[in-house]
Amino acid sequence: MKDKSNGTRINTDYTDKNGFYFFSAFFRARPRPIIFALTITLLVLASCAPVDLNAPLPVYDTGVDPNAWAQIPAGEVYFGQHEKIETTGAYEIMIADVTVRQYADYLNAALADGTLKIEGDSALGYYPGDPFHGVKHEIEIKAGDWEYIPLDDPSQRIKFDGTTFSVQEGYENHPMTMVTWFGAWGYCQYYEAELPTELQWEKAARGADARPFPWGDEILRENANFYSSRDPFEDMSSFGSRTTPVGFYNGQSYDGYQTLDSASPYGLYDMAGNVWQWVGDVQPQEGFSDRFMKGGSKDTYDMDLRVWVRNSAPPMYFSPGVGFRCVR
Amino acid sequence: MKDRFNYLFGSTKGLILVAAAMIAMTTAVWGMLSGPMAEMGVREVVIKLLRMDIVQSEREGRIIILYHSIAMAVVAIETYMVTGLLKMKSFYKTAINLLITVGYMMTMVFGMGFAYFGHNWAFHGLYITGLSLIFFAGVLLCAALWPWNPEYYISDAAYARTKKGVDLERVAFFTTAVTTVISALFGAVPGSYLGNGFETFLAENIIRLPHKTPMEYSIIGHLHIMLALIAVMITLIIGRWLNFKGAWHKVAMPLMILGCIVLNLGVWGVVTPLEPVAHMIIYVGATPSMLAALFLLIWSWGKFAKEGTAHIAKPTFLQKLGAMVSDPLKFGPTWQMLFMNFTTSGIGIFMAIRLDEVFRMWPAREERIELTGHWHALSAIIATIILMYYGDMIGLKGKIRQIYGWSIIFLSDLALGAVTVFEMKRLFISEAEQQPLVNGLMYAIDFGLGMLLVLLAIVMVWRLTDLFKPKGRWTEEATHELSQEAAK
Questions:
Q1: What Rg, from alpha-carbon coordinates, does chain A have?
Q2: Architecture in CATH for domain A69-323
Q3: Angle made by CA atoms B72, B74, B78, in degrees to the nearest 5
Q4: Cα separation of A213 and A211, whole Å?
Q5: Which of B75, B110, B145 is the last residue of a domain?
Q6: Residue A40 burial (CB < 10 Å; 0-12/13-18/19+)?
Q7: In angstroms, what separates the C-alpha of B365 from chain A's closest C-alpha?
Q8: Is A311 close to B360, i.e. CB distance below 8 A?
Q9: Gap from B227 CA to chain A (nearest CA, Å)
């Protein structure tokens, strides 16, 4: 084939005398593929960088009392994405997620009165078990002691010295995470409360209308803690998104970071973002052994913060992005 | 002007160019509404600039229309390739191409208009009309491909055929077309039912619920089988383009026909009381189909190695390997089929084997990432195969051909490989420690897909400028048919 510019021939016989045009050309004549390969190598190395899970974090008092409860009146509610109308009785729900401080206090009390056990690197408590139907993929949850929280996980913000539970400094007013559904259920039971049902949770989040977010129809970064929402606790180049203190998005300014007041119509905070929240429904479908989680989290895109979105996991699952609150 | 219009809407290559341009534009604009573009705030700018009407509760419905808009254009491209490669009556060819062109354009324009720019119900009706036209084009394609017409019998013993001379490759095309038309109904019926009540859902969001309605099963089956059939059809198209023949062809075609039928029966069975065994039937059907694709790969790679070293008396292994990869546009499609086993089939099989022990121990959102990731990867692989064939049909040669072909392979495989690692990351890294890995993978994905789109944009701009030339490349393409150019 003739090159128009200078009339010389371009090699279209890709099997040259050395037999391997492509690969020889790749390394001999083209610096770009090598740069490309080096870039990929650097990317891979950067991807393996260790993460400091105990990196310093800012400490803010949000002014929201995690011991406060909101009154939810009896009545109808739009339930789910397709706005099915359902009814609930009246109930009270915590205005914020259970904090690490509250959970540590509970663990100390439960350990003292013998309702909590320590076995290996786990804190365990009793759960009476689920009905079991033998449906495909169903997990049998028998009555017995189940893990409430792991004690050895580096993401655990509650420390145990062999006798007492304490809170890692700075996390006192952050939502309790690294807690299984059993651990959430055990906490609520201990204080004569329950985990909210999905219906109760949604009603508390959206109020009497069909809004997709607790505060209204649209979401901005200053409304909630979600993936890449650029809050002061986040560093996407290293540890990524972290929890914000409960009630952080209340319209206050924190060292120049202005939040929007994002309470639900009933005055609840963090019903969208920050941490997924376990809800209490057991076997909402026969053979469905997972537990639902609601609200989205610091690790999910804004679409998962819509009130009807469901996540689910087996009740023994725990994560730095899952917490809970109680109803009574 | 008339000549150009005739080229764009009257010739196979022109029709493919228009559809590719439509897909490229849609992908470029709507790709900015999610992922890293959303993180960077680009989404908000696009929404405001284009005055989109984004209602939160309608996201799932919007996405379904977006998927269909792109998928219908891809189906149109494959149909153009089939009508260009296979013998059929000119009436059928004209009618099919006309119907499917009007159909996908109406689907895309009015569907996206309805979904993203306020609910104009006339648009919704026209969107449905577009889908219906495509369905009708599919029915006509089945009639056009009827393999038991003696006119289409073959006598060449190098190809798979019956004793009577029925062309088994044509039977495979026919089977794929017929099952595609039937499988479309599995989406149309529940789509009408659920869409009319605005109760649309994404299959990945209900996957863990043990009890699903037949309509829900139908949707899940539909989306799986349609993508699988698009993949089967592109495999057959690539085989025809490369002039697949010989012993491998004779084994592959019956396998492809059998696999396609069994695979479809399995998927359709999902909505029947056979549901508990449907998955096993699907595995049984998928195996011969994938074997047939493997035979195409073995045959084509052998052919490239043999032909490329024909001038060498005793070629070494490296010389054969060099010859095999010397033309990325011909080597690439089957390579991508092989790569698909890493990004799609392998992931699917691994998930199926370790579902209860591993994947169902993770949150449903993790499973959603795997589900959506692996079929996005399959869709992207099909798109790259189409782009490689397109590169050949527009006559790319020399260095441009090498750069175009290898760029598609490297960039897409980099991105899709990273997607696959992203899907499986929980196997080897904890949630708390994942961010640097996620960042690295995202850079690789964004770079790969972004550069691929840039490459596509360059091709589209080049083709656009070519149209302004009185004797541009388009004048040659207007008269050339794909069947004349299939490898001899």
A1: 26
A2: Alpha-Beta Complex (3.90)
A3: 115
A4: 6
A5: B145
A6: middle
A7: 6
A8: no
A9: 25
Strand partners, A75: A88
| Angle at alpha carbon of residue B275, lines to B269 and B278, rounded to 5° | 65
Q: What is the ipTM of this complex?
A: 0.89
Residue at which a domain ends, from B145, B166, B182 = B145
Distance CA B121, CA B196 (A): 12
Residue type (1 letter), A233: F
Rounded to an integer, the average pLDDT of B190-202 is 80
Task: State the number of CA atoms in the 13 A half-sphere of B43 facing the CB.
Answer: 15
Q: Do B363 and A306 touch (CB under 8 A)?
A: no
Determine the residue of chain A that is closest to B401 in CA distance. A12
**DSSP E strands, A14-79:** 69-72, 75-79
Q: Which residues of A touch B318 (CB under 8 A)?
A: 19-20
Mean pLDDT of B70-75: 97
Domain positions in chain A: 69-323
Structural domain tally of chain B?
2
d(C-alpha B427, C-alpha B430), whole Å:
8
Look at residue A262 and give its three-state secondary structure: coil
For position B22, which CATH number holds?
1.20.120
Domain hosting B65: range is 1-145
In sequence order, what are the residues at sequence separation of 6 or more whose Cβ sits closer than 8 angstroms to the Cβ of residue B302?
Answer: none
Please, are residues B138 and B180 in contact by the beta-carbon 8 Å criterion? yes
H helices present in A126-235, as ranges: 181-190, 198-206
Distance of CA B435 to the CA centre of its chain: 32
Whether A46 and B440 lie within 8 Å, measured CB to CB = yes
Instruction: Please identify which residue in the block is written with the tokens 């006798």.
Output: A163
Written as one letter, the residue type at B396 is L
Among the residue ranges A150-159, A309-318, B325-334, B432-441, the one predicted with the least confidence is: B432-441
Q: Taking 90 as the threshold, does the pLDDT of residue B472 lie above it?
A: no
Which of A9, A17, A20, A277 is best to mutate for the B interface (most B CBs within 10 A)? A20
pLDDT in tens, A190-215: 999 999 999 999 999 999 999 999 99
CA angle B430, B433, B434 (to 5 degrees): 80
pLDDT tens digits, residue range B141-179? 999 999 999 999 999 999 999 999 999 999 999 999 999
